């Protein structure tokens, strides 16, 4: 808009921007000896150090280049920093469900999702922005759309059901507990029971 480019809207109020920062896409820097995750973190660091309240920041899937919990922790911390310290106008795209809870405790954060419809196992993205977080993930449908063989998709569905079942079992057990009403011995017994439940639900080496 500041350059005189077309704005696809009936009306818009756009404040002054000093810079535009992006952290989109991922690739190794083989010549520089940097992994995908190192490239990702280097770009994120540059944004966190230089973005101002007048900057526009576009972050896409931050944290996907490492383990799930490390990636989630870093994505959450970066989002919080951009919101509370940099105070930049930020679009933070993510599949981490935990990040959608930011509006519950930080003013200025809002959730939006792109609408999609599913019919007979196939997905169509409507490219319409809706309020609130997405209510589900469409990873398997997108994989099928990209051409992943049907037998691989079916196997992935079986793994997904097993993994979701593990979470449901542990969650149900924990919800039924009353920590304040347990004696130290009862608490220890429940801890061993939870450990046993987790061990039974975890696949043995070489299975699957």
The fraction of residues in strands falls at: 15-25%
**What is the helix tally?**
5
Q: Main beta sheet: strand number and arrangement?
A: 3 strands, parallel
Number of strands: 5
* Topology order in helix (H) and strand (E) letters: EHEHEEEHHH
What's the CATH superfamily of the largest domain, by name? P-loop containing nucleotide triphosphate hydrolases
In helices, the fraction of residues equals 40-55%
Q: How does the overall form come out from the CA principal axes?
A: globular
Please report the first level of CATH classification, the CATH class of the largest domain. Alpha Beta
What is the terminal-to-terminal distance? 54 Å
Corresponding CATH architecture of the largest domain:
3-Layer(aba) Sandwich
Structural class, judged by helices and strands?
alpha/beta
Widest sheet, order of strands? 1-2-3
CATH topology of the largest domain: Rossmann fold
Poorly predicted regions are 204-208
Report mean pLDDT, rounded to a whole number: 84
Radius of gyration: 22 Å
Q: How many individual domains?
A: 3
Structural commentary:
The structure is a single chain. This protein is of the alpha/beta class and 208 residues long. It has three domains: 1-110, P-loop containing nucleotide triphosphate hydrolases (Rossmann fold, 3-Layer(aba) Sandwich); 112-148, no CATH class; 150-201, no CATH class. It has five helices and five strands. It has helices at 36-50, 68-86, 139-145, 150-175, 184-201, and strands spanning 20-23, 56-60, 89-93, 112-119, 122-131. The chain has a three-stranded parallel sheet, covered by helices on one side. Helix 1 (36-50) links the parallel strand 1 (20-23) and strand 2 (56-60). The protein is globular. Mean pLDDT is 84; it is low at 204-208.
